[in-house]
Write a structure and sequence with these properties.
The protein is mainly alpha-helical. 64% of the residues lie in helices and 11% in strands. The protein is built from ten helices and three strands, in the order ααααββααβαααα. The chain has a three-stranded mixed beta sheet with strand order 1-2-3. Strand 1 and strand 2 form a beta hairpin. Helix 9 crosses helix 10. The longest helix is centred in the last third of the chain and has 23 residues. It starts with 11 loop residues before the first helix and ends with a helix. The relative contact order is 0.14.
C-alpha cells in the first residue's frame, strides 16, 4: 500500500496564516501590531503625550496633546518611523502625521495591562484546552501571529463555553 494515506492535514494555524496573507488582512494585523507597540517604541513619556490613532494608506496618524509636543515630534518623525520599522522588522509606513487632540490618559495603561497579564489568556481553560490551542498554532512561525491566533482560539472557546452554559 502506498503512502497516500499517511500525509497529515495542515494545522489550522498554517491555514489561517496563509489565508490572512492571501486576503490582505496580514497587513492590517501588522498595522495593529504597530499601534500596540507605540508606547514600547517611543517610550513612556512620549506615549503619554502622543497616541497613535490609525494607519491609513501607509500613514500613521498620531494625536498629540499640545503644539510644543507636536513640533518636537515633527523633528523626530524620521527616527520614529525608523524605530517602528525596526521593531516590526517591516517597512509599513511612508509617513507620520501629527494632529492636536485630547489624549486619553488610560489608553496606554490599558494596553500595558492587557499585554502583561498572562492569566487573562488562559483563564477558565483546562489543561487539555490549553494544549489544544498550543498544538493548533504550533505551525505558525511568526511568534506575534501565533499569539494573535491563540487569542482568537481563546475567545472562541470562551464563547462556546458561554453558549453551553445557557
Amino acid at each position: 500500500m502506498g503512502e497516500r494515506g499517511t500525509k497529515r492535514p495542515p494545522k489550522l494555524g498554517e491555514v489561517l496564516e496563509r489565508s490572512l496573507r492571501g486576503s490582505g488582512l496580514m497587513r492590517r494585523v501588522q498595522e495593529q501590531k504597530l499601534l500596540d507597540s507605540w508606547g514600547e517604541v517611543v517610550g513612556e513619556v512620549v506615549a503619554r503625550k502622543a497616541q497613535p490613532i490609525r494607519v491609513k494608506n501607509r500613514v500613521l496618524q498620531v494625536k498629540v496633546s499640545n503644539s510644543v509636543w507636536m513640533q518636537q515630534l515633527q523633528f523626530m518623525k524620521g527616527l520614529i518611523i525608523e524605530k517602528l520599522h525596526g521593531h516590526l522588522g517591516k517597512n509599513l509606513l511612508e509617513d507620520v502625521r501629527f494632529f492636536m487632540g485630547e489624549i486619553c490618559p488610560d489608553e496606554e495603561g490599558i494596553r500595558k495591562k492587557k499585554k502583561e497579564d498572562p492569566q487573562t489568556r488562559t483563564a477558565g481553560l483546562n489543561e487539555e484546552e490549553r494544549e489544544r490551542i498550543a498544538k493548533e498554532v504550533a505551525g505558525v512561525r511568526d511568534p506575534e501571529m501565533r499569539d494573535i491566533l491563540s487569542k482568537v482560539f481563546l475567545k472562541g472557546l470562551a464563547a462556546e463555553k458561554n453558549r453551553k452554559k445557557k
